[in-house]
Structure formats: structure tokens, C-alpha cells
Amino acid sequence: MILNSRKQALTSLRGQRVCISDLDTVFHNWPQDVNPMLEFLRHEVEDRLESILPSDKRLGKLKAADFGLFGASWWPRANFSHCRIITFLAIWLFVWDDEIDSEIGPLAGDLEGARNFREETVCFIRNTLGLSNQENYETPHNPIINSFATIGVELCRTYSIEQRHTLLTEIEFFMQTSEAEQHMRLQGSLPSLEEYTGCRMGTSAVGVCLALNEYACSTELPSSLICDVDMRELWDQTNVIVWIVNDLLSVKKELAQDTVDSLIPLLYATNGNAQKSIETAQITLRSTVRNFEETAKRLAKKFDHDPLIRDHLRSFIEACKYNCTGNLSWR
């Protein structure tokens, strides 16, 4: 059975019962913890949300999401000030994406408005990160876009130009895939698995978060390591692990929002079997975790000659593992 329309997929998949095996077993030998500053972080998050979206009807839902736990679980080894800034970035990503994502954002059906929103965002971020030569830049009026300023100021103080360029590149990829995803959704037909996974590598925003793992670890990796093919592979594998877990655990919620741009509905559209779709995703998840381990070993061996790089690389790899287990525990 091959389904070609969103309505067909929604109608056929709704009401079916599936079983998702215990995902904790996938990460049984990976570290998992919660930052001891969790409660302080939760207070910071509440104040942050109220400053960005005062009196907004979404505020209660966003507070209930517990972004404090998100930050504390993803970066349990970061000191409080660094964990606070990275959690602010996560909040920014969620709130920004809500303007466009799925069927519920105010710009969800407005391609031109969404394009302007993205362009204004990238321009502001580039300026805030000190990576633009533009003079007399006018600060945008949108409070969501403006809320990145706190993050940008801190990263200009602590991050090198190369590290800030890496972050900007990941944010631009996030924006580009967000636009591609919106185009596909508004066309009405279902994207292919290849189209979806290509977009998902950006819309997951995992790459943006990984770009701050050095900040979380208070390290700076050399460009030779950041540009290494195995390091790029490690980033991609971390990305896939996180978004497959998210797609597995959010399918019920997304169907309730009439959203089928997700791994399980798209697998189902090709094989017609909901449980098989779940199992296929889980097999891919387990194989990606194994591939991550192999990639990490190659990287460690490749850069074993320098004790400082070796230690910093070990911290980065551990941070990626915490990102994956922390994402699961927060979900």
C-alpha cells in the first residue's frame, strides 16, 4: 500500500495500536545525568519565557514543557552560567519554530511572511554574533528574534570567530530546511522518505545545539578536528539518533495536530503496517548508535597524539552521548 496524500495517511493511521520497545535499552552503556542546578535553571527558564512572550496564550504550554529539565538533561556537566545560556538557545529554537511549524503556527500557511521572518532572523543573528559588516543595522521589533541577543552577546565574549561561524552555519541550515519543509507541507502531497530525512537533519535543530557543546564543555576544538570527515559523521549520527527518538515518541501528538511530516507516518505510507514502521525506525536507531560508537573510536585513535585534543575530544563525544540520553529522559 502506498499513500500519496496527507488525508489518506491521517485517516488510515489514526486509531491503530503499536508497541514501542523500551528505548532506554538502546543507550544502556551511555552516560545519563541531570545538572545539579536544575531548580535554579527552572526559575531562569520561567522568567525567560515571560520576558519573550508576556501574556501570550502559549505561555502555559511552554512552561509545562519544562525546558529547565531539557537543558539540565542535555548538558548535565555544564556549569550553571553556560547551561543557562544553552537552555536559552533551546528555548529560542522551540519558540521560533512554533511561529512556522506544523499546522499551528501563525506563519504556518504564509510562505512570504515566513520567508521574511527567516531573513530577518538570520540577519539579526549574523550581526549579533559579530559576523556581519553591515552598519547602522536596525534592531527588529519581533521579541522572539530579539531574544537571541542575550545568547549572541555571551558567545561573542566566549567563542572564537570560527566557533561562531560554525553556529551560524548550523542556524542557516536550520532555516533553509525549515523553508523546504514548509513548501512540501503546503503542496499537500506527502514528501518521500529521502526528502523528509534531508529536511529533518536541519529542522531537528540538533546541529545548532551541538555547535554549543564546546561551550558546555568549556573547550575549543581545533579546526582540523571540527572539519574532519569523522567528526561530521559523529554530528550527523547524533542528529539522527535524537530526531528518530523524537519522531517515535511524538507520533500520537503530531497525528492529533494533523501532522504527518514525520518518520512513522511516512514509513507507514510506504509499507501500510504501523507496527512494522515503528520497528523499522527502532532498527535504524540501534544501528546508528552502533555506528556512532565506531566513529567515536576512529576519531579517538586519529587524534590520540595530542593529550589536550584527546581530552577535549573525549569531553565532546561524552557531551553528544549526554545529548542523546538527556533528550530521551526529557521526552
Write a structural description.
Helix 6 runs antiparallel to helix 9 and helix 14 runs parallel beside helix 17. This protein has 17 helices and no strands. It is an all-alpha fold and 331 residues long. The protein is globular, with a radius of gyration of 20 Å.
Give the percentage of residues in beta strands. under 5%
- The radius of gyration over CA amounts to 20 Å
- Shape annotation: globular
Euclidean distance between termini CA atoms: 31 Å
The major sheet is characterized as: none
Instruction: Give the beta-strand count.
Output: 0
| Continuous helix count | 17
Average pLDDT taken over every residue: 94
The secondary-structure element order is HHHHHHHHHHHHHHHHH
